[in-house]
Amino acid sequence: MNVLHIDSSILGANSVSRELTATIVASLKTRHGDASVTHRDVAATEIAHLSGEIIGAAFTPEAEWSERQKSERALTEALLEEFLAADVVVIGAPMYNFSIPTQLKSWIDRICAAGRTFKYTAEGAVGLAGGKKVIIASSRGGVYSNDAARAMDFQEDYLRTVLGFVGITDIEIIRAEAVNMGDDKRATALSLAHEAISALAL
């Protein structure tokens, strides 16, 4: 089993999503002794946001690529290979300002690649990266799962949508919310999240 472990929180040891992804990956390794884990920390080693120069390599003969285009194309290829080789992808996704961290978006922009993870047909887009299981560790300072606040959730809904676009439908979300609403609520949220991890079918 190949496991790709993605962390994106900027909070280091204080991160809830990092605590949860570490627990999920440890559980996978316990249950699957042959599990091989690749860890990519997109906060510690940031992936450049797409720019005109970076994306321009797709429309420029390779012999004319700049040094930046060469290095960024190599990085994109490495990220795609990691993603495509994974049987299970564990993503730490805290909510920042109602959405995902910009660092995580940069990773997503690299693995959403026409001809590699999706293609366009006469009937519309078709995902090419199916057959994987994705486990998302979602952390939120407030509560956004109730009817009153669900309209502000551009985090979990976005991740489900973009993963579905590349063909992934087996998605589990382990959620810890209200973690900034007092010590008691944080402790309860973490306890429930760890219980949910224990109950996962891995």
N-to-C span = 11 Å
Overall number of strands: 7
* Radius of gyration over all CA atoms, rounded: 18 Å
Reported CATH architecture: 3-Layer(aba) Sandwich
The CATH superfamily is Flavodoxin domain
**What is the strand content?**
15-25%
Provide a brief overview of the structure.
By secondary structure, the protein is an alpha/beta fold.
Question: Could you characterize what this model shows?
Answer:
By secondary structure, this protein is of the alpha/beta class. The chain has a single domain, classed as Flavodoxin domain (Rossmann fold), CATH 3.40.50.360. The chain contains six helices and seven strands. It has a five-stranded parallel sheet, sandwiched between helices. α1 runs parallel beside α6 (183-198). The longest helix has 19 residues, at 67-85. The termini are close together.
List its traits.
globular; single chain; 5-stranded parallel beta sheet; 21% strand; two-stranded antiparallel ribbon; alpha/beta; 202 residues; Rossmann fold
Topology:
Layout: E1 2-7, H1 16-31, E2 36-41, H2 52-56, H3 67-85, E3 88-94, H4 102-111, E4 118-121, E5 124-127, E6 133-140, H5 156-165, E7 170-177, H6 183-198
Parallel strand pairs: 1-2, 1-3, 3-6, 6-7
Antiparallel strand pairs: 4-5
Helix pairs in contact: 1-6
